[in-house]
Structures are given as structure tokens and as C-alpha cells.
Specification:
Layout lengths: L2 H57 L4 H37 L1 H34 L5 H71 L3 H33 L8 H5 L6
Helix pairs in contact: 1-2, 1-3, 2-4, 3-4
Length: 266
């Protein structure tokens, strides 16, 4: 085998090694970032759930129309979080997990690459041994050379076989990689579009619920409450004034009439 064929095989193996390393690096980064994106989306869902509860609690303290509007708004916001929960689950299943699986695939290819490099190394060693045998001139030179040539042939066949296996594995890996990238990114876009489309629809309904709150009716309720409080306060003032005028008179001038004239209720 010529030195040129070894050089060509080494260059090919080096290119494959660089490709596997490159995919490992970038797929690892993509997996980490998509996983972080999914976790942040899940945290946003959890915070929104707390917001829903707080809007409900606040609505319970408000006037009738505003209370109704706030509760309807909170219900729609809760519905958005249901869609966001589905978004998180689909991101984990359709994006993060497929990227995680490439760790196993890359380990398999690295093992194939290691086997090929080992076979090539044995082939080089056998070739070097044969060259040394040919340069010597012992009495049994022909037998030793024949044995070395036989070992070289076996090493060459093994190296060729492992190289072909590696090439087939890399070809399959490249096809799968391209197909998976298309699938994963398409799934990501589809999941995001589906969520935002549903969220826009629900947020539109929530917008109308808030806009439909009748301000004048609630204002009348508020005014009624204020007037009621003012009347209650006036009654208290009158009661206190009457009581003060009674106790300011001498005891002998008081009669049942003075106490009967006091309001019985506020």
C-alpha cells in the first residue's frame, strides 16, 4: 500500500473526526438552550397561575360589574396557561428529548471512528514491519517476509472493512442529522405558532371582558355605599349630640321623654 493511500485515508478520518466533534459541540449547545427555554416557559406558566389567583381574590372585593369582569378575565388567563402547559410538554417531547438522543448516537460514531483508527494503526505497523523484513537478509528471509505480507494483508482487509463500516455509519448519520434538524426545528416553530395563535384568541376574549365592565353601574353602587356611610355617620353625630345635650342638664330636669327622643337605631 502506498504512502499516498495512507495519507488520503488519514485525511478522510480526520475530516470525519472533526465533523463528529462539531456536531457534538453544537447539538449539545442547542439541547442546553432549548431546555433552558422550556424551563423558563414553565416558570412563566407558574407565575401566571399565581396572577390568576390574585386577580380572583381581588375580584371578590370589588363592585359587581368589575368583579364579574375580573373573574372572566382571570378565567381566560388561566386558559392561556393550559395552552402554555401543553406547549412546555410538547417542547420537552418534540425538541429537547430528540436533541438529547444525539449523545448516544455520537458515542456510537466515536467508537466506530476509534475502531477505524486502531485498524489503520495496525495496518501501518504491519507495513513498517514488512519493509524492515525486506531490508534484512537472514537465511529464512523469504519465510519471514511471506508471514509479514500475510499479516499485512489481514491488517489491510480489517482496516478496509472498518473504514467501509465507518463510512456507511457516517453517511447514515448525516442523512439522519439533516432530517432530524428539519423535524426538530419544524416542530419548534409549529408548537410556538399553535400556542401564540390560541393565546391571541383567548387574550382577545379577555380584552373584551375587561372592556365590557359597566363603569356607570359600578359607580352608582359606589356612590350608594358612600351615601350610606354618610347617613350612618350623620346618625351617629346626631345621636352623640342629643346624648351630650341630655347629660349636660341637671339630673332633676331629665325626664323619660329626653331618653325616649334618642334614636333607637343608627
Amino acid at each position: 500500500m502506498s504512502q499516498m493511500s495512507f495519507s488520503g485515508g488519514d485525511n478522510q478520518t480526520k475530516q470525519i473526526q472533526e465533523m463528529v466533534t462539531n456536531v457534538k459541540k453544537h447539538f449539545g449547545q442547542l439541547c442546553q438552550l432549548f431546555a433552558a427555554y422550556t424551563r423558563k416557559t414553565a416558570r412563566l406558566r407558574d407565575k401566571a397561575d399565581l396572577l390568576v389567583k390574585e386577580v380572583h381574590f381581588y375580584g371578590d372585593t370589588e363592585t359587581p360589574n368589575l368583579r364579574k369582569g375580573l373573574k372572566l378575565f382571570a378565567d381566560q388567563l388561566a386558559k392561556v396557561q393550559d395552552y402554555r402547559h401543553a406547549q412546555v410538554e410538547r417542547l420537552e417531547a418534540k425538541v429537547v428529548e430528540p436533541l438529547k438522543s444525539y449523545g448516544t448516537i455520537l458515542r456510537f460514531n466515536r467508537e466506530n471512528l476509534k475502531a477505524t483508527l486502531s485498524a489503520r494503526s495496525r495496518e501501518v505497523q504491519q507495513l513498517q514491519q514488512l519493509e524492515r523484513m525486506r531490508q534484512k537478509n537472514p537465511s529464512d528471509r523469504q519465510i519471514i517476509v511471506s508471514l509479514a505480507e500475510s499479516n499485512l494483508q489481514r491488517a489491510t482487509m480489517n482496516a478496509t472493512r472498518t473504514t467501509l463500516q465507518l463510512e456507511e455509519a457516517i453517511d447514515e448519520f448525516e442523512k439522519k442529522k439533516i432530517k432530524d434538524i428539519k423535524t426538530i426545528f419544524t416542530e419548534f416553530i409549529t408548537i410556538e405558532m399553535a400556542f401564540h395563535a390560541k393565546a391571541l384568541e383567548v387574550y382577545t376574549t379577555a380584552f373584551h371582558h375587561i372592556q365590557d365592565v359597566e363603569e356607570d353601574e359600578d359607580l352608582q353602587v359606589s356612590i350608594g355605599l358612600i351615601l350610606g356611610l354618610l347617613l350612618l355617620l350623620a346618625s351617629c353625630v346626631f345621636c352623640l349630640s342629643s346624648f351630650a345635650s341630655i347629660i349636660s342638664k341637671p339630673v332633676q330636669q331629665l325626664s323619660f321623654y329626653h331618653f325616649a327622643s334618642l334614636p333607637l337605631t343608627l
